[in-house]
Amino acid sequence: MTQDYRRFLRPEELSRIDRLEIRARHIVEGFLSGMHRSPYFGQSVEFVQHREYAQGDDIRRIDWKVWSKTDKYYIKQYEEETNLRTTLVVDVSESMQFGSGAMSKYEYGCTVAAALTHLLLRQQDAVGMVAFDDAVRSTVPCRSKKNHIHSILQGLAAEAPREKTDINVILQHVAEQQSRRGMIVLISDLFAPREGLFKGLKMLRHRGHDVMIMHIMDDEELDFNYAGTTRFIGMEEMGDLVCNPKALRQGYIDAVTAFQDEIRLHCARTVVDYQTIRTSEHLDAALSQYLNHRIGMRQSVRN
């Protein structure tokens, strides 16, 4: 299905978020010299520690001041500064087609992905993308070139939302493809079995990735403000339902709250950043709140 991918990149939105920065909260690895920390020691400006000299070490890294005091040879070790590698994992399943406002969850999620791509490329970080439903529908490898955003947007627009969601299989695929530690951003309504979601998140964290979840939800999915006899058309192989939504509202709200709380609690336990974002929220406000929260957590960890 041919779509105009440029609609995901709105200048009026991007102009308000240009000041934001995305930094990994956990140690990341990258290819180029940049603004993010690497777990590998090398020649850089930030000293980390000494270790005793071993045969084969570069003698230029011997700390002669320490030798003069201890009569032993010690090597200086430094922490490299490296760029961030981010993979955007975007849900394009059928349930993402739902929308009661100006944008469907799919449109909003793609707009979030476009904005994050724009920000990351501005700070010379590498970005890639995986679009999925019950399988991988399109993949764009990580690149840091400024015009790479067009490849990301084309990948997002290449597939219309369809089929069911299998997040576990997708997160396993992402983990297997990402040999280097970096940031994984999952953009989804998370309408999938929680067991598979939690298993996939645990695998990503076990492999050292910094994981963010942007849980995209429509206002009506959260508030359920329907009135009168209503026919609900099922998505992802769910049947239709005719009912009085007012009679079901409290039970529905309780179920949605429990759904969010379960995910939020699991993310807290596994050190995964999680936030629900309504499709009615202004994109710049939603990203600003989320990223400021991450910066605060990052600073608290350092302190």
Q: Care to describe what's here?
A:
This protein has 303 residues and is α/β, with parallel strands linked by helices. It has 2 domains: 5-26 and 83-302, von Willebrand factor, type A domain (Rossmann fold, 3-Layer(aba) Sandwich), CATH 3.40.50.410; 36-82, no CATH class. The protein has 9 helices and 10 strands. It has helices at 11-17, 64-70, 105-122, 148-157, 167-177, 194-206, 219-223, 245-269, 283-302; strands at residues 36-52, 74-82, 85-91, 126-132, 136-143, 183-188, 210-217, 230-232, 241-243, 273-278. The strands form 3 sheets. It has a 6-stranded mixed sheet with strand order 5-4-3-6-7-10, sandwiched between helices. Helix 6 (194-206) links the parallel strand 6 (183-188) and strand 7. Helix 5 packs parallel to helix 6 (194-206). The longest helix has 25 residues, at 245-269.
Task: Draw up the topology in text.
Elements: H1 11-17, E1 36-52, H2 64-70, E2 74-82, E3 85-91, H3 105-122, E4 126-132, E5 136-143, H4 148-157, H5 167-177, E6 183-188, H6 194-206, E7 210-217, H7 219-223, E8 230-232, E9 241-243, H8 245-269, E10 273-278, H9 283-302
Parallel strand pairs: 3-4, 3-6, 6-7, 7-10
Antiparallel strand pairs: 1-2, 4-5, 8-9
Would you kindly provide a brief summary of this structure?
This protein is an alpha/beta fold and 303 residues long. It is 38% helix and 24% strand. Helix 1 (11-17) packs parallel to helix 9 (283-302) and helix 3 runs antiparallel to helix 4.
